[in-house]
Amino acid sequence: MTEQAKQLLSAFVSKIPEIYFGPERVRFIADHIDKLSEEQKLLLLKYANHILSLMLERQASDVEIGGFGTQGYVWFRIFGNKERVEDLPQMKPDEAGVLIMSLLNPSQRQILMNERNLDFSYTFFYEKENVNVRFRADAYFDLDTLALNMRAIQAKVRPLNSLEFHPLAVKAMSHNYIKFGLSLVTGITGSGKSTTLDAIIDYHNQFDPCHIVIIASPVEYVHTSKKSIIKHREVGRDVLSFKDGVIQALRQDPDIIVIGEMRDPETIMAALEVTDTGHKVFSTLHTSSAVESIDRIIAEVHPSEQERVRNRLADVLISVVSQKLVPSLDGKRVLAKEVLIVTPSVKAAIKNNNTSEIYMMINQGAQQGMITLEQDLIRLYTERKISKENAIAYANNKTRIMQLLKAG
């Protein structure tokens, strides 16, 4: 099957006129991909699924296909490290482009060509485990050639108790305990934010008779309604934007609104407003500490709005979890996290623009369920889960981690 797929890709590429360069070649692929027969399309689909099956077997989190940077190889990320897949045949940039385009429908191809980027989800039946596996995918251009990243979405949700949160932190995030307010899960790309968010949703789904609306781009894990009723709205497919999804959710009788990412000022303002109306809201940010998350939200809006947003954020923010995945001594990765619970002192610090004081409040807030990233890294080091070098490397505050290591 691999050889047949390679021949098909090669034959398709040979039809691209030699006078075409760069984006013109990609445009030719997009315009002619539907001329393949059903059998040929199926062959390419099977080949793509073969690559994804290999990825799952090798416990890779991500796959890279196409683009100048791959140098013709398929690459996997295995336990945090990017590796060439030597036992898969190399593909020329145009061949990878054909394979990527074959995964898209006509409207998706149009968006990709117009916007030079496309977020989408992909599902295939993984025969070895007898399950449907979902992937979050991003198609984009790399030096005028098509590239694709696909990330495997966990087939099962991790139970919230396996993430080792303090019981008071879980209480703060629980809709049963606090019916309203904003809880953030933050971290850089690939730090497991979605996994934590899904664990929180699943936690409520086990016992809370409430309505959860998830707005995501794309929808990753699909939850089956148990005790809660859960709606999934994918941006670009079910709703036009995060902001629209948040505003529309107010008319859908929700208890909990999950916003996949607060990526622009409009979404941030909509999230604060919807939280103000007495709903519980969960969202994510690309920040690496709790204090940075607060500063980022305020900095995202126009200076004339910042004072109002600062006061509103102080009133509605309940908790912030900032996390990183750290290489563990067993060759895998383990979760390190910083947890901020918004106490009256934290609220006052946000309102008075003294966010620099918040780190020490987290540092001294163990009894309220708080922990700094540095304290959690020390915990993982003393439990012999991570090395001393990685504890230092992944710390946000290098001075503080060195003090803690000396004290230990």
TrEMBL record:
One of its GO terms (molecular function) is ATP binding. InterPro entries: P-loop_NTPase, PilT/PilU, T2SS/T4SS_dom, T4SS_GSP_E_ATPase. Residues 250-264 form the Bacterial type II secretion system protein E domain. PROSITE patterns: T2SP_E. SUPFAM superfamilies: P-loop containing nucleoside triphosphate hydrolases. Pfam families: T2SSE (PF00437). NCBIfam families: pilT_fam. Belongs to the GSP E family. This is Twitching motility protein PilT.
